[in-house]
Every structure is written in C-alpha cells, then in structure tokens.
Design goal:
single chain, alpha/beta, globular, seven-stranded mixed sheet, 263 residues, two-stranded antiparallel sheet
C-alpha cells in the first residue's frame, strides 16, 4: 500500500525584531530559516517567546515542551510552559533522558506523549512541539513532530544545537543496541522548524566540554563552506546561499580571537 498525504504549507514565524533580538537567518535553498537570538534578560526572553507563539497560533495552541535531564533540572522547559500557560495555552511537559545513546524511538516515542498529541489534535487544537535543550533533543523531537504532523519550534540551550542541529533540517533517530550506537541518524526526515529562538543567557550554564565541541563543529562546517566561492565549492554547496559570507565571517573570528588555537 502507498500512503499519500498532501503536505501543508510551511508557515514560519517572522517576528519583527526587538532591540534585544538579533536575527540570524539561515537559508536552505530558497527557504529562509527564521533564527532569532534574544540578548536581553532570560526572564524577558521566555515571556517574548510565549507572546510570539500565542500571537501566531492563537487560543488553539497546544504546546508540547520537551526537555532533557539537564534542561529540566535548570528549569528551562518548565519556565517556558509556565509562561505559555499564563498566556492561556495549557499544554504538555515531556522530560526525557539526555545523550546520543538515547536518540532512539523508545526513548522519545512514549505513550503519554503520543496520547497527549493525539488528544489535542482530536480536540481541534494546534499541536506545537517545542524542543528545549541540546542537539539530540532537537533532532529527536523534530522527528516526533514530523511523524505526528505537529508544528515545530526549536529553543537551543547549547551552542551545538544552535550551530548544527537547527541548520541541518535533518531530524532523526539512531540505531542503538545495549547503549551502543551502531548507526547514527539512520531513521529520519527533513523537517524545518517554524522558529528557532535562542535566549543567549542560557549559554552561561554550558560546560567547557560543550563549548569546545561546538567550536570544533563550527570549525568543520566553516572549513567546508570556505570553498563555497570556488568552482568545486559551488557544485558541492549550490543549495546553501550565502556560504562564502559565513566562511569569511568565521575566518575573521579566528584572526581576531586570542587563544582560539588552544581550543
């Protein structure tokens, strides 16, 4: 049997930036991924996100806030859901295990989560999955959103999530057996978020190893994009608009940041 369903139009949020916000649009082909960095106070950023979502989706919004163990302990996920509830949008809170070895269907496809999404859809509400946390959280919850037909919002709390997981468009599970990753991202889809909203103050809680991992990932990415203005690069990265600008910016950072080589 062949199952077919017409895809709904992608409706990204395109907020008019406040003075505290720095838009960082990333283009995938002709589609511009709306990425916003909120550089004001954390509490104000949480309220701003809640206002944007309530204003975009209205009273029918059913937020599903998903957060890993670290983000849950720090209160990031609960703060966002509380702000949305205060705006009149009750939802569902989903805390899950953290780490690459838990990037698998049984860790995220929990009955209570799927039941909450199904109930909201049956009631005619707009289910919106908010992935609050690191890259694994964004990848796996994006997969859940894609499989359930929910809208998707990413709220990165790590540099790796903001730099890598949001811009790849790829959402996936890995093949993990007895805690060992046998094949990474083997089951996946391409599913764009309606908004990437990052509150920069959350980066103050990052560990040094997380920062170093993000710098390494960024260096790898910019190394590839650095040849985007060459004939070979234009062939390899023809669908990434502005790649040479990204590369030149990163080169300038390396030249002007003391101690970068120690990282």
């Amino acid at each position: 049997h062949v199952y077919e369903r017409k895809l709904a139009a992608w409706r990204p949020l395109k907020p008019v930036p406040l003075p505290e916000e720095k838009p960082a649009p990333f283009k995938i082909g002709a589609m511009e991924l709306p990425m916003v960095t909120y550089e004001g106070r954390y509490e104000a950023g949480v309220q701003r996100l809640a206002q944007l979502l309530q204003g975009h989706y209205g009273e029918g919004l059913f937020p599903v806030v998903a957060v890993g163990e670290t983000g849950d302990a720090l209160g990031y996920g609960r703060d966002i859901l509380t702000a949305l509830e205060q705006a009149g949008c009750d939802g569902f809170y989903f805390a899950h295990a953290s780490g690459e070895s838990f990037k698998r269907p049984d860790a995220y496809g929990k009955h209570e989560l799927l039941a909450a999404l199904a109930s909201a859809k049956s009631a005619g509400r707009r289910a919106v999955v908010l992935a609050v946390g690191g890259g694994v959280n964004g990848n796996a919850m994006g997969m859940i959103a894609a499989l359930t037909g929910a809208d998707f919002i990413e709220v990165p709390t790590t540099l790796m999530h903001y730099n890598d997981a949001t811009t790849s468009a790829k959402k996936a599970f890995s093949l993990v057996v007895n805690g060992e990753i046998l094949s990474k991202n083997i089951l996946g889809t391409f599913y764009l978020p309606q908004l990437v909203f990052c509150i920069s103050e959350v980066f103050l809680t990052l560990s040094p190893c997380s920062v170093h991992a993000a710098v390494g990932e960024a260096a790898k990415t910019m190394s590839m994009l650095g040849k985007a203005d060459s004939a070979v690069g234009q062939q390899d990265f023809h669908n990434i608009l502005g790649a040479s600008e990204f590369a030149s910016d990163f080169t300038r950072i390396i030249r002007n940041t003391a101690g970068f080589e120690q990282l």
